[in-house]
Write the structure tokens for this entry.
Amino acid sequence: MDESGEAPHESPGFTRRKTVWFHHCDPAGIVFYPQYLLLVNEVLQDWFETGLNVGYAGLFAERRIGIPTVRLECDFLGPSRLGDTLDITLTVARLGKSSFELRYECAGTGQQDVRARFRAVLVTTSLDGHGPIPLPQDIRTAMERYL
């Protein structure tokens, strides 16, 4: 793993290593499922910043572009516990005119130890008109590397 927290990977995906902390867990000592969504969203933001080289805050504040999630599917395959290390890998499954589909895989000690998978469809929208807009070309080009 390098200084940025990027875990080694062989796929075209963007991988970040995350530690399961106390605040992620329920009284049973396993990750409370909504906390996975927060972890996945952190990976999304980091992907924009370091993987795509697109300022995440600037996307909203300067470019006035929103990227709401319009569809989300989750499969929870095994428990993650306090102190576990997870490699969360994001890949692009599809690029449309205004939408894009992302896949996330959360793995424990190895690629065979998959704890959760997520499929998310996001849409680029105008924060001024609140309707869909075409995916900007610079972002589309950057995302193509992760298909």
Summary: Strands lie at 14-19, 65-66, 69-76, 85-95, 99-107, 114-123, 125-126.
